[in-house]
TrEMBL record:
<keyword id="KW-0138">CF(0)</keyword>
<protein>
    <recommendedName>
        <fullName>ATP synthase complex subunit 8</fullName>
    </recommendedName>
</protein>
<dbReference type="GO" id="GO:0015078">
    <property type="term" value="F:proton transmembrane transporter activity"/>
</dbReference>
<keyword id="KW-1133">Transmembrane helix</keyword>
<keyword id="KW-0812">Transmembrane</keyword>
<dbReference type="GO" id="GO:0031966">
    <property type="term" value="C:mitochondrial membrane"/>
</dbReference>
<keyword id="KW-0472">Membrane</keyword>
<comment type="similarity">
    <text>Belongs to the ATPase protein 8 family.</text>
</comment>
<keyword id="KW-0066">ATP synthesis</keyword>
<keyword id="KW-0813">Transport</keyword>
<feature type="transmembrane region" description="Helical">
    <location>
        <begin position="6"/>
        <end position="24"/>
    </location>
</feature>
<dbReference type="InterPro" id="IPR050635">
    <property type="entry name" value="ATPase_protein_8"/>
</dbReference>
<dbReference type="GO" id="GO:0015986">
    <property type="term" value="P:proton motive force-driven ATP synthesis"/>
</dbReference>
<keyword id="KW-0496">Mitochondrion</keyword>
<keyword id="KW-0375">Hydrogen ion transport</keyword>
<keyword id="KW-0406">Ion transport</keyword>
<dbReference type="InterPro" id="IPR001421">
    <property type="entry name" value="ATP8_metazoa"/>
</dbReference>
Length: 55
């Protein structure tokens, strides 16, 4: 069963993971967010409880 032989696939996986970690990821992390998170405090709406007719 050739799919159980990890020799070629492990090297391909390792190479692609190292490529992602060392080349692509730092380039992606340098991009500035177009919509940065705001520092406003969240507003809690004032809600009234529902009055159930059968209670």
């Amino acid at each position: 069963m050739p799919q159980l032989n990890p020799n070629p696939w492990f090297f391909i996986m390792l190479t692609s993971w190292l490529t992602y970690s060392m080349i692509i990821q730092p380039k992606l992390l340098t991009f500035l967010s177009a919509n940065p998170p705001s520092s406003k405090t969240p507003v809690v709406p004032n809600t009234t409880p529902w009055t159930w007719p059968w209670t």
